[in-house]
């Protein structure tokens, strides 16, 4: 997925509708949390086993995909508004995590 292309398309979508004034970092973070909660709601009362069974329901899986897409779109837009290179941030974070959580030592 070309994240910068998605961001450009999303920005055009927003501008065409006159929504730019509402796209503040604060509002985007709030919207991101709402969409994350909507994703969580799908799984809220499922057992761990039932949560895996979501893959067997095309309707529920579609809903999960829609909410996941909303989360990604708001995150991408937030990063765009703040000039954060998300791809670079992800690479950096993964490197930091590898140092913070090294592989366990194998058997001696």
TrEMBL record:
Segments traversing the membrane: none
Q: Which Pfam families match?
A: MazG-like
* Taxonomy, superkingdom: Bacteria
Q: Which PANTHER family match?
A: DCTP PYROPHOSPHATASE 1 (PTHR46523:SF1)
Q: What is this protein called?
A: NTP pyrophosphohydrolase
What is the native source organism of this protein? Deinococcus roseus
Lineage here is: Bacteria, Thermotogati, Deinococcota, Deinococci, Deinococcales
């Amino acid at each position: 997925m070309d994240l910068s292309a998605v961001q450009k398309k999303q920005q055009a979508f927003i501008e065409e509708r006159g929504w730019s004034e509402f796209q503040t970092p604060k509002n985007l973070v709030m919207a991101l949390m709402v969409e994350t909660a909507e994703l969580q709601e799908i799984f809220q009362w499922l057992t761990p086993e039932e949560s895996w069974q979501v893959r067997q329901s095309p309707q529920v899986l579609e809903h999960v995909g829609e909410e996941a897409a909303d989360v990604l779109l708001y995150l991408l837009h937030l990063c765009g508004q703040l000039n954060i290179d998300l791809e670079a941030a992800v690479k950096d974070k993964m490197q930091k995590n590898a140092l913070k959580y090294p592989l366990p030592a194998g058997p001696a």
